[in-house]
Specification:
The chain is α/β, with parallel strands linked by helices and 589 residues long. The longest helix is centred in the middle third of the chain and has 48 residues.
Length: 589
């Protein structure tokens, strides 16, 4: 709809406005009708100035006629005031707040159902802007900009039509002069759409960089990169500053050109009117009234030119909101089914991440038995994480099928698939909430007793009791007030409470000290009892007792077996095992 050289027309903007208004589209149209009435009355009010002045400049003065025109003017002003009041009800009533709330609620729902692959392509700053500023930009401009547009179109139209009955030459002058604003308007819109697109992208990138900078501040301090040397953030700030400077300069140029147009219009009318008054073909009241009217008409015109970019802000903001809203969810193939058992099978699965050329999985066929432990090993980037993501329906493969209990996951609803899995990651994310609420997220209806029972099973209860407010202690941003082992055990408590039939463990003890590892391992033993367990293994010593080990390399399954049988093959697993044994012998010389 919009690019550097193409901006939304008023008709397109009106259609966008109705879409944004949603259930309040009737109120939006009602507001526009009241604006139309208000600015028709405003045009008639301006024309009444001529009637008053013509009556007062008569010889003798026609006071009665002047009072009639003043009375008419008062009626027009009164109707204008009431019409504006009802028109602004859309802006300042419940409609805008309700539209904003509904749009954010829809966005929130879409984020919960959006395929995780698509969600992962967005930067944090982009999504944050979508839920906050983009929604406000879409909604807040609706009534205000619509009213201003109606004012600059309808009021001059009424004045020109009325001027035909006063002096047709002045009407023609207005018709000739008024269109001169169109090139200014087009210039402003073209530069504005380019400016707003660049500013939106720059601010979104800067917001993401700021979040990343704050989260990584501890690392940056250790590398002395907290100042100008924090390259990407610093460059982002400079880029936004340069764009703002260019924007201010462009706005100043537009305002100066608009002021020059107003001055030009007044000069032309004054010179032409003086000539016609001099040769006796125009009255002084007519030229005086026209100068007053034109000066009043040009003021909103100048203001509209200054803020016409608001149309682009609204359209650009809604375009980003719309892009999120229109992201199609993963389809559930009919008839929908549920898995009755929890073995997992990949049949010739091929998958390529969005925007990548290299396949992450290539004709991958694996079988993961139910109620057994399967370890997935391989070098970094081999496809281990992709396998676990696809079984949770992070995205659908481009070829092949994935079955849970003999049922294609495309026949299982996303919500149902999510209920089958509990995941314990190496890097635990806790919300800045109380411990009891962080655990209860796994099962929203769980009682306090059930949460405590899960925490006890996960070896959390003892350290939680020692905290200042026990289970009601807030954990801080990303759980920062707790140690790595404590966060890990809380995440296991969350998984125990969910009681899902399939457990995915992403090497949850890899970054822990020996004491924490023992506590976490004990909690894991409780978690995995009678479950289908998939372990993404980095330290091979931790999965020596697995029922099955899958060796993945370059997106393909190359070996399958137990720890002992794979060592006997002297293949890829054997090489990985030997590499880790040799790594343990490394020391500082």
């Amino acid at each position: 709809m919009s690019s550097v050289n193409n901006y939304a027309t008023f008709k397109e903007t009106y259609k966008t406005g109705k879409i944004i208004a949603g259930n309040h589209a009737k109120n939006f149209n009602r507001s526009l009708l009241f604006y139309a009435l208000a600015y028709t009355m405003q045009g008639l009010t301006y024309l009444s100035i001529y009637g008053v002045m013509a009556s007062l400049f008569r010889t003798p003065v026609d006071a009665g006629r002047a009072w009639i025109w003043l009375g008419a003017m008062a009626v027009f002003v009164l109707i204008n005031g009431f019409a504006r009041w009802f028109a602004h009800d859309f802006d300042y009533g419940d409609a805008v707040a309700d539209i904003t709330h509904n749009m954010r609620a829809k966005l929130g729902k879409k984020l919960r159902t959006m395929p995780l692959e698509v969600l992962g392509n967005y930067k944090t700053g982009e999504l944050n802007a979508g839920l906050s500023s983009n929604v406000d930009e879409s909604v807040m401009m609706l009534g205000m900009v619509s009213g201003m547009f109606i004012e600059i179109v309808l009021t001059p139209m009424v004045v020109v039509i009325g001027m035909l009955f006063i002096d047709w030459r002045m009407a023609v002058l207005l018709v000739v002069i008024m269109p001169l604003v169109i090139p200014l308007y087009r210039r402003k819109r073209k530069s504005s759409i380019h400016e707003k697109t660049q500013n939106a992208q720059a601010n979104s990138a800067l917001e993401s960089d700021i979040i990343e900078y704050i989260q990584g501040l501890a690392v940056l301090r250790t590398t002395n990169q907290t100042g100008k040397n924090a390259g990407r953030l610093y460059n982002g700030i400079i880029h936004v500053r340069d764009l703002q400077r260019a924007s201010i300069l462009d706005s100043i140029v537009s305002m100066v050109m608009a002021d020059m147009l107003i001055l030009f219009a007044l000069v032309v009318i004054a010179i032409s009117g003086s000539f016609w008054v001099g040769n006796g073909t125009m009255s002084i009241p007519a030229i005086a009234a026209l100068l007053i009217i034109v000066s009043r008409l040009m003021e909103p015109l100048s203001l509209f030119l200054a803020i016409s970019s608001a149309l682009d802000i609204m359209n650009a903001g809604f375009a980003r909101v719309k892009a999120v809203m229109e992201t199609p969810p993963l389809k559930t193939v009919s008839p929908p089914k549920k898995a009755q058992r929890f073995d997992i099978v990949f049949n010739n699965v091929e998958f390529t991440y969005h925007g990548q050329k290299e396949k992450a999985l290539k004709k991958c066929t694996i079988t993961i038995p139910g109620q057994a432990m399967t370890a997935v090993v391989g070098p970094s980037g081999s496809g281990k994480t992709t396998i676990t993501r696809l079984m949770m329906r992070y995205a659908d493969p481009q070829a092949g099928s994935i079955m849970i209990g003999g049922t294609d996951i495309r026949q299982i609803s996303q919500k149902e698939v999510e209920s089958y899995f509990a995941v314990v990651f190496q890097d635990v994310y806790l919300f800045d909430e109380t411990i009891i609420e962080n655990i209860r997220m796994a099962k929203s209806g769980a009682t306090d007793g059930q949460v405590i029972q899960a925490a006890t099973a996960a070896c959390c209860h003892e350290f939680i009791k020692r905290l200042p407010d026990g289970y009601h202690t807030r954990v801080g941003d990303i759980g920062g007030s707790l140690s790595g082992g404590e966060r890990q055990r809380i995440s296991i408590a969350r998984a125990i409470l969910k009681d899902a039939p399939i457990i995915i463990l992403d090497e949850p003890t890899a970054a822990l000290d020996t004491e924490s590892e023992l506590a976490v391992q004990k909690a894991i033993d409780t978690l995995v009892r009678d479950k289908t367990v998939i372990v993404i293994a980095h330290r091979l010593s931790t999965i020596a007792g697995a029922d099955q080990i899958l060796v993945i390399d370059n997106g393909q399954l190359i070996e399958t077996g137990t720890h002992t049988s794979l060592l006997e093959k002297h293949g890829k697993y054997y090489a990985l095992w030997q590499a880790q044994l040799n790594g343990k012998k490394w020391n500082i010389g």
